[in-house]
Structures are given as structure tokens and as C-alpha cells.
Description:
The chain is an alpha/beta fold. Helices cover about 40% and strands about 15% of the residues.
Amino acid sequence: MNAKLDSSVTTRPVTRQTFDDVIVPTYAPAAMVPVRASGLDLWDQNGKQYLDFTSGIAVASLGHCNPILVDALTKQANTLWHLGNGYTNEPVLRLALALTEATFADRAFFCNSGAEANEAALKLARKHAHTKFGEHKSRIVSCLSSFHGRTLFTVSVGGQAKYTEGFEPLPPAINHIEYNNIEAARAAITDDVCAVIVEPVQGEGGVVPGNKEFLQELRNLCDKTGAVLIFDEVQCGMGRTGHLFAYQGYGVTPDVLTSAKALGNGYPIGAMLTTEELAKTLNVGSHGTTYGGNPLAATVALTVLDIINQPAFLARVKEASVKLVAMLEGLCKDYPEILSFVRGSGLLQGVVVADAWKGKSKDIQKAAEAQGLMMLIAGTDVVRFAPALIVTDAQIDEAGRKLRAALDGLKAAA
Length: 414
């Protein structure tokens, strides 16, 4: 029956309760419902203003409703939306050229998310190994506390059991080692390994930067065994560390790099970047996605890349990082009973909670939100900060004041 859509459907009142009524309960969102945002400022249904230091989990790195991106998207929306992969389009070709020129890569594959980018990377590694060495070379090595996506394959590769419980049987031939443990890497990466996947900076696992020596040894071991080295830069890439991609700051070059999140500043897009040799493994029909590299997403991503990949912009990220770390370290000094120490890279920083607050990072997040500061957690023992890369010194100071008020309230209630 083709009934005309009732106009009230698009304008009917909805609240946070509506989520509990009609959405599959895979999330537990905050009580407030955001309705409008600009830059790092956000307003909820009640008109309350917040300072957003989450950027949508390191996504809106150029701020909400960035006017340059809005203009680019609007122009493309009035030009060409979608074609399907039987055709290519100009925006995606320009984006592929720009990404390969800016990185080690020769080829790009576009999809819709970080999980899809990692899925493509892992499938590429398996197929390459089977083609070149035989099916015995199929084992994948990842790190404990890692996060690589929510498909059954990528969630199995991620090293957090809480995300795989109940979904068994899981894909086989996947092993996990301790992050930054060189000896564990040497023991695990042998001739039957087809891929090693690692986040240069672990995000969901607690905001833990990789040691250069560890990442370099992974490179050495992959060279020795013929395994493919995959860097998952979905969260730490696109300027977040003060380099376009984190690998460039480490001086360790992977065979495959995955990107998403900030690549589209909130418009869904993912990318897998790789070398000419590896790209040959995936021939016509061996992999694909309906929406990957559509003109809308590619246009936004190309504009994002053009803004971020400038020396002055990246230098400012490093400058803002110093300011943010100093603010957070000051809070650790003044509230040692709640906050312990700071770790991270660039504008992706985590604060490990003190022993008395183990398991209570969510409580700190909620207290900050009550003061008008939006921030993240990374597990139960770390609060995480990922402000837009355009954050000002004044906004960092404001975040510090709001967080200080939140900590004062927690101390008083303890």
C-alpha cells in the first residue's frame, strides 16, 4: 500500500524516552538530546549549551557544521549523489589522488566506516598470502585491548572479549599479544602469519600510544615473515596526532592503512590505502560496497583533507596538544584522589583515574556533562578527550574550568 507519508511523522515530538521505546538497545546514550551544534558548541532540547570535547568520538575534527564543508556538500548534493560501482565519479578520483600523493600508498579503496576499511584490509591480507604463499599462511596477529570494528571478523580481531561474548563461533586463526610487548610480538609473528594489525595509538583500549621500538619491530617481523602490516588509523589519523597520519610521526611505514571517522568529519566514509603490489590481489568482483566512494562522501572527505593537510594547521594541533596536556596534568596535580596521570598523542588524550576511582570513569564523564562539558571514556578507568582540531586556547581553558567544577562536586559528594 502506497499511503502518503503523514507530515506529522517528520515533526512529531521525540525525547530520550523514544530511544528506549523504539531503538535496539545497543547503546546507552546520555539523558540529554543534542539538537544543534556549531564548531565546538552544542545545544540540547532544553536549550542548554555544552562545550564538546568529544567531536563525535574523534570524528568532527573541523567542528560541527563547518561552513566550508557545508558549502562543499551542498554544491555536490545539487550536482550528483550516487551512481553505484558500475561507474566512477570525479570527486572520488580526486580524493584517491590526494590521499595517495599525501601518503606511502599507491591505491585506495573506499567504503563507509572504519570497520569496513579494516574488513577490506584483513581480506586483502588473507587473499594476498593465500595467492603468494598458500592457504597455510592465514593467521592474523592483533593486540589485546585493541578495537578494529564491529563486524564479526573485525570484532574478533579486536582484543576485547566483552565485544565477542555471545557471538561464537568466532573466525579462527586470530591471536592477540600484549600491546607494546616486543618479545610477545617476536614469539607470535611466525611464517604462518598473513597479517599484523595494530593501532599506532590505541583509542578504545585506554588511549595508549605505541612505542616506536614496538612498531618498528612489527615492521621488521612482517618483512622477515612476509606478513602484511596494517595500521588502523581510524581514530588516530587525519591530523589527530599533529601529523596527517600517525605513522608519519613514528617513521614506520605500514603496507596497509585504514582511515575513517575524521576523514568525513561526520559524513560516513572509510578508506583502505595500500601499495600497488598488494592492490593487485583484489581483482574485479573480489570485494566491493554499494555506497563506497560516492560523490557526496568523497567531496566532503576531499575538502577535509585539503584543510587538515597543511603545515600550519598540523603545527597548531601540536601547539593545542601542549596546552591540553598542561591543563589535564594540572588537574591531576590538584585532584590526585580522583585523577592519576595523562597519556596520549596530539589531541587524543586520556587521563587514568586514581585507584579509588577505578571503574568509575563514567561517573566523572556524567559530572562533567552536568557542568556543560562533553567528554569521552576509554574503558572504565580512563576519561578521554578528543576535541575538534580547531579547538582554541580559550576553549581548552573553559574545559578546564568546567572539569574542575565537576571534580569539586565529586569530591564534596564522596
